Amino acid sequence: MHRPEPAPALNSADIYVQKRVPVSCCEIFDEQSSARAVECGDVRLVHDQRTGLVSNAAFVSATQCFSGNYNGSQHGSVHFGRYAANLSKRLAEKHELRGKHVVEIGCGDGTFLTGLCDISGARGTGIDPSLLQRAGSDGVVRFLAERLGEQHYGLEPDLIICRHTLEHIGELDEILEHVCGMMQGRTDIPFYVDVPDATRIANEGAFWDVYYEHCHYFTPDSLQAVLRMNGFRTEDMHTEFDGQYVCATAYLLDSDTDAQSVDEMVERSGDMTLLASRLAINLDKQRNLWRCWLEDRPAQSVVLWGSGSKAVAFLTSLGLDDQVAAVVDINPDKQNSFLAGTGHGVVPPSELVDLAPKFIIIMNPAYVLEIRDALAELSVTSKILVLGCSHPVADKGLPA
To answer: pTM of the predicted model, to two decimals?
Structure first.
């Protein structure tokens, strides 16, 4: 049984501490013993007073090693697929990508980049060290299984994309320096970025969205501050995917026209001190509340839907194994595997008929409608709870 160490007393700089959590949430394990023996590290969130960025001070970049069993894809979801397709269409139209070259940093399995090039008529280069099984080229899109570096300065991109990646990179200054290097001084190359929104995490007390692989937690203001301090000006800052992601388009600073100083811009992130306080209070509150609720459930009476990082963080943070019978996932590549840390089995939705859980906890509220449809097709009538919706930040309480 995976049991996290008791949370230690916080020092004056700590916002939130969680000991012994898996360093990789998206690794697929075929054996339960291997899943439970996964390497662990600590989470110790601290707040940078200048930029407002919240980071894990205990993060060690060397722990982030990728194998062919790493799978963080969400493209099996209809809702996420629709979001990704709409984003591709908007990027293609806004930047007139036909015949141009798109570089995606941290491209994952390459699904998004391939789809973008298909609809836009662009060429693509995907760079990601986890691309162990897809390195190569089909003549339109090529994939490089390597880390971003000086060797990529000659790629001559017309658009650079970095989705769901900056939050994983310990050395932000280094990767942003390489992005500048690829731009070769051109101030007209757009740099599209999206990251999870820490404002939502703080407001919800979403401890399930705090895990080792995410070493940084951005708000719109702190993302803008970090980009500005590394030589970029930002445009079109907004949130997407049901308010879960902060998105921005950035360009290299032009010293002749961008007169606003870093200090003047960073002053706008002063409310991050209040957000850090909300993080500290709400994360602990939610963790304790869910732990108490689960402790009162009968053994094997709960199933989680979604086997990604949220499920790993939820279970390892709570340290409760017996109450949760299994974790459901629609991704065939994840089914019949075991969750990092706790070793819970990952099963297809059809297994719910036999499991007959009293409660199903949905890990991501963005997928509620499609999950409800799937449950209706299976005639499963379990009570549904949704992280971020069923949680009682305002002391409303959870169902019995």
So the answer is: 0.89
